[in-house]
Write a structure and sequence with these properties.
By secondary structure, the chain is of the alpha/beta class. The protein has a single domain, classed as NAD(P)-binding Rossmann-like Domain (Rossmann fold). The chain contains 12 helices and 14 strands. Strands 3-2-1-4-5-8-12 form a 7-stranded parallel beta sheet, sandwiched between helices. Strands 9-11-13 form a 3-stranded mixed beta sheet. Helix 4 packs parallel to helix 6, helix 8 packs across helix 12 and helix 10 crosses helix 12. The longest helix has 25 residues.
């Protein structure tokens, strides 16, 4: 297939591009370096420097013999979107092109407005571009398990059958966002569901849990092709942050009671999920939703696993419970369904102390670049 990856410079976008290219697909990526810009402006650059997309694309072609097209521009600008879609004419689109941080979206008014305008305008432009240029294409959009919140009932896979006064109907599962970022993801889903019904689009919405990990099969032995690895409070996911904190001798920052439970997955499994969804697409007029995670852990469980992995390599890891800067339940029921991707053939990678020890070993090689002041800024929801 011709696959166009929106947000192809990001933590997941670039590894996805390499993975799909290695699998034989014709890949092009689009990005405006927004995440790089925000990281620089907020002084939270990643652990190691990442070359730009043009450089990485050339290096990938040298190693693999396969070309990844690069388009640099702002997907909020319709003229640029139209130019890219008219040139590439993709069979499938992977949509990562969003401001991806819940803490950043709650930082201040400026960050909130950027999150709203970027995420919703890019999704809307993508929908209109599909309609105008490639109405038969399949869109894989990365959502988030955070759309569901933490309800006191089982979380179904995107949909809920409701019986009321003797009648039955199927609805999108009720969502209750935990941040402005998660609210924009809910609005994305609503936009897509509307245009699936009206225009018969093909859409797969992947409700993804927090992702952890550094290396993928495609960058093995080639550190220069690694993706971003943030460890700060704004862009670093919790496992990645805890690993860096362990190496830096910084107490693991557990918010509140630490009972917050979420579904997690290895970066390699994200790549599997996206590829499987592309290669077995939704049908016209279908909004197909998969809950994309492999294992559920509380923050306390993750902290203990990182402590144990640290001990394996001689690190004494402390854990510190901080006043929770977020508005969230710290103890709650959590039982989401996640069978759809397993049925497509997902082969999960488990989070083990051995996996964490491997991450610790890589981070240790970059210990001198860790800036402790980036780890915790106490960005508060209220």
């Amino acid at each position: 297939m011709k696959v166009l990856i929106l947000g192809g410079d990001g933590y997941l976008g670039w590894p996805t591009a390499m993975h799909l290219s290695a699998a034989g697909h014709d890949v092009a990526v689009v990005d405006n370096y927004l995440r790089r810009s925000i990281s620089r402006d907020e002084d939270v650059e990643p652990l190691f420097e990442v070359p730009n997309l043009h450089w990485r694309s050339r290096r990938w072609e040298e190693l693999s013999g396969r070309h990844i097209g690069v388009h640099i521009g702002d997907l909020r600008r319709w003229d640029f979107v139209a130019e890219v879609f008219a040139e590439v004419r993709p069979d499938a689109i992977v949509h990562y092109a969003e401001q991806p941080s819940a803490p950043y979206s709650m930082l201040n008014r400026r960050a909130s407005m950027l999150t709203l305008s970027n995420n919703l305008e890019v999704t809307a432009n993508t929908i209109f571009a599909m309609r105008e240029f490639v109405p038969e294409a399949h869109l894989v959009k990365l959502g988030t398990m955070g759309e569901y919140g933490t309800p006191n009932i089982d979380i179904e896979e995107g949909w809920l059958d409701v019986e009321h006064n003797g009648r039955r109907e199927r609805f999108l599962y009720p969502r209750q966002a935990g941040s402005l970022y998660h609210t924009t993801k809910i609005m994305d889903t609503d936009l897509l569901w509307y245009y699936v019904r009206v225009w018969g689009l093909k859409v797969t919405d992947l409700m993804q849990g927090p992702v952890y990990g550094i290396d993928t099969d495609e960058c093995a032995g080639h550190d220069e092709l690694r993706t971003f690895f943030n460890y700060d409070e704004l862009f670093g996911t919790v496992v990645n942050r805890f690993v860096v904190q362990a190496v830096a001798g910084y107490p693991l920052t557990v918010y509140g009671k630490g009972g917050q439970t979420r579904g997690y997955l290895n970066i390699r499994d994200t790549l599997q999920c996206v590829r499987l969804s592309l290669e077995r697409p939704a049908t016209a007029g279908e909004l197909r939703i998969f809950n994309q995670f492999t294992e559920a852990f509380s923050v306390n469980q993750l902290a203990e696993m990182v402590r144990g992995a640290g001990a394996r390599v001689g690190l004494a890891v402390d854990v510190e419970h901080l006043e929770n800067p977020r508005k969230e339940l710290e103890e709650h029921y959590y039982n989401p369904v996640h069978t759809g991707l397993l049925e497509l053939g997902l082969e999960p990678h488990s989070l083990t102390e051995e996996v964490l020890a491997g991450m610790i070993e890589i981070v240790t090689r970059h210990r001198e670049t860790i800036d402790r002041h980036k780890i915790f800024r106490n960005s508060r929801w209220a």
